[in-house]
User: What shape does this take?
Amino acid sequence: MKKPFHSLVSTIFAITVSIIYLSPFSLLEANPVGFSVDLIHRDSPSSPLYNSSLSHFERVSSALYRSTNRVKYYTRACTTPRSAFSDVISDGGEYLMKITIGTPPVSILAIADTGSDLIWTQCMPCLDCYKQKAPFFNPTSSSTYKEAPCDSRACQTLGGTFCSDGICQYMASYGDGSSSQGILATETVTLSSTTRRPMSLPKIIFGCGYVNDGSFSENESGIIGLGGGPLSLISQLRSSIGDKFSYCLVPFSSHNTKSSQMNFGQNAIVSGNRVVSTPITRKFPNTFYFLTLEGFSVGRQRLEFYNSSSSPNAFGNIIIDSGTTLTYLPSNFYSRLESAVRSAIKEEPIDDPQKILDLCYKVSNEISFPIITAHFTGADVKLSHLNTFIETSSDVACFAFAPADNIGIFGNVAQMNFLVGYDLRKRIVSFKPMDCSRE
Ligand SMILES: *[C@@H]1O[C@H](CO)[C@@H](O)[C@H](O)[C@H]1NC(C)=O
Ligand SMILES: *[C@@H]1O[C@H](CO)[C@@H](O)[C@H](O)[C@H]1NC(C)=O
Ligand SMILES: *[C@@H]1O[C@H](CO)[C@@H](O)[C@H](O)[C@H]1NC(C)=O
Assistant: This one.
């Protein structure tokens, strides 16, 4: 099995158990701005992680392996007691975003991760860093760099336990033995917008890493946490973006033609016909965006997630995540859904040539895939076969759902060709069908 491409830090967001929101910064609070950035799928040609010697289907199968690893992260994160939560690590996810930090600005390409919070990059003087192609960020050549004191709110959000000479230190350890340590600091972060001039964001809290050792790629310089916890980029921008962001993920087959987009503030408003919305549930850990899935319909047959008498944890039973490829359901519900899908398709299933997924078909036959509708509370999201079946070779398509231990994750394949909007003030996620490779 392929090793996870890299592992990432989440000790920091992990410790943030309380719902303290850091006070907003000197941005235009009354007048939220709008801007949009490219979200680059790691396996698309515009990504530096793109390996041109792999075939399309080899890339698909490594995305499936990464997905399997990521669900382990979520399972651990959601079952670990709060006190031990700091050991849980994220594997980063599937999309990259370009940002610049400092004054003058230094460009970094980092993983955009809706499953973690901290923004983090390798810094000079690196004591022990992993190999990185792009230059390290050098805080001494930036006029806007400022270390976070131990008594700062940012440091206390981390638990305030790592303190040296009055400066806030972060320290993160990885499941695979690697680790990252550094200083918590504030910096000006600039996002280059596809719709306006670059957006400059002062005093963004980030980790300046001096000891970073692990299975990272030389082509990525860090992580941009987009989770719901207080240190994520989203939470730090809260009022200046009106607590809104959205994304439109292009299908695998359109990676060559267009990047996915992430929108903030005014650009992130999801409105018009065919918009459906569902509440976000507050749950531990607050990094994750928990929704409530009542069931699925396969064609006209409706399957409830829980049978009404036994729904102890129904609220927030599924996490929506852009960094997980497949959609995961607790195994018991998965089995019921899978057999409904199986009986809705006339053709005989075949074994997955990659041996990853459970329900596969030869697509050389004219298969008519059933429409599967996800019934979130208040929002029926009609998934097309592009959202529910993934081609794992030129003539095989497999059901893009998988079983997991007591956890639900609504993954990125299921979200492709939807504009997915998060309004953290109203605490809702909205879906609108959209051709993401055109818009
Ligand atoms: C990093 O990017 C370069 C192209 O910029 C590519 O040749 C190289 O294979 C990439 N390395 C990895 C580990 O993806
Ligand atoms: C690209 O894929 C080939 C074939 O699997 C592999 O040998 C090579 O190491 C990969 N390159 C990178 C930079 O990951
Ligand atoms: C729910 O009820 C259906 C039909 O009554 C049954 O087939 C299914 O096994 C039940 N599921 C669970 C999780 O109890």
Notes: DSSP finds seven helices and 27 strands in the chain. Confidence is low (pLDDT under 50) at residues 1-30, 174-178. Residues 56-79 form the longest helix (24 residues).
